[in-house]
Amino acid sequence: MSLTAAEIAENNARHATRMARKKAVIDAAIANATDEHGLLIVITGNGKGKSTSAFGTMARALGYGMKVGVCQFIKSRTDTGEEAFFGKLPNVEWHVLGDGFTWDTQNREQDIATAKRGWAVATRMLNDPSYQLVVLDELTYLLSYGYLDNDLVLDTLANRPDMQHVIATGRGATDALIELADTVSIIADEKHAYRDGVKAQPGIDF
Ligand code: ATP
Ligand code: MG
After folding, report:
1. How many CB atoms lie within 10 A of CB 97?
2. Is the domain 37-196 a CATH 3.40.50.300 member?
3. Whether residue 46 has its Cβ less than 6 Å from ligand 1
4. Which part of the chain is the Cob(I)alamin adenosyltransferase N-terminal domain (predicted)?
5. If exposure means fewest CB atoms within 10 Å of the residue's CB, which of 28, 39, 92, 157 is most exposed?
6. What's the gap in Å between 103 CA and the centre of ligand 2?
7. 205 C-alpha vs ligand 1 centroid, how far in Å?
């Protein structure tokens, strides 16, 4: 059934009132948000989209000419689309610091040594204010598997340069990391093509 002209006018007026009210609330919230400092953002959960979220934010930062450091822990592959694209940009420093998945290495001592070597690279960036954004891809596993001294990692993150942003990704973020973070998103695994037998594809999964 089509609406009369009067009903359309009434709907439009109601919509305008609702939007004016919403704008007032949003403007007040924006006016309140005056603080500015580097953020610790954690992207966790079992769904797809953690690393790609970090790389999306990285593209945004690079658009402003910011200097970005990337540490990829755990995984060892260097043939990813993200590295091929971002890795050769002048403002990007890209490090692949993994040895492969822990179920591949099957060697905890080796995993710990690798994690410590990787964390040394990250620490250098987290002590240097010239890095405006640092991406710590898959950091969560280094904490949840106990490969690194959790307190040391959290201290280093907490004491980084004031304006430096950090994005940490990976499943199962620890409570302490979530507590320290400014922004936390938990990506839910509603569906994944993998479970329908679709293999990982270049340009989408790596
Ligand atoms: P992406 O890098 O695509 O954003 P991610 O960082 O959220 O994924 P990881 O745990 O790092 O997820 O997994 C890396 C690889 O595993 C990617 O190829 C991704 O597509 C795939 N993947 C992510 N989530 C799932 C899932 N729930 N089931 C199966 N494979 C997944
Ligand atoms: Mg990932």
Report:
1. 23
2. yes
3. yes
4. 9-30
5. 28
6. 16
7. 7
